[in-house]
Design goal:
The longest helix is centred in the N-terminal third of the chain and has 41 residues. The radius of gyration is 40 Å and the shape is elongated. It contains 4 helices and no strands. It is mostly helical.
């Protein structure tokens, strides 16, 4: 996540002229804390599962004298919640930093994005110059004669009878 954040951050915001850098530092600290807490949660959950496994093994062997070991399970739940909150806070701070700096750069005209107004449009460059007479297709359209439409009063002529000679 940190790599993706840095990859997009360097393209969007000019860090040398950015404002509110402590927000960025808080975001990165929060995301690093998330990674550390997730690793701790993973290790605690392994230890909690080992305790539960030994409890159930003793329980099936007939030695179920002590209470169910759920103390570490509660800690794992709390730590998972802390990791989730820290992750959401880190992403929110990073987005806030990016949005504030983009609006600041747009207001001070330091934006790397080049904007062209629609009224100030330009004619795109052509790969080759073509005279206006040569534009379009060079294929000539065939001459079309208007089709003869027969009306119901006209009877079609029998061409076979008129072409035979006697």
């Amino acid at each position: 996540m940190l790599a993706i954040l840095f990859a997009f951050l360097k393209d969007l915001v000019q860090l040398d002229s950015s404002i509110y850098r402590p927000v960025l530092y808080a975001s990165l600290t929060s995301l690093a804390f998330t990674v550390a807490v997730v690793i701790l949660s993973f290790q605690l959950s392994i230890r909690a599962l080992e305790q539960v496994r030994s409890y159930w093994k003793e329980h099936y062997d007939g030695n179920y004298q002590h209470l169910f070991p759920d103390k570490l399970g509660k800690w794992v739940r709390y730590i998972n919640w802390a990791a989730g909150i820290s992750f959401i806070m880190g992403i929110s701070l990073a987005v806030a930093f990016i949005l504030v700096n983009l609006s600041h750069q747009a207001a001070t005209k330091e934006s790397p994005i080049v904007r062209t107004k629609i009224e100030e449009g330009y004619v795109p460059k052509s790969p080759m110059i073509i005279k206006s007479e040569e534009r379009g297709s060079t294929i000539k359209s065939p001459v079309q004669s208007s089709p003869k439409v027969s009306t119901p009063q006209e009877k079609p002529s029998n061409q076979q009878g008129s072409s035979s000679k006697k």
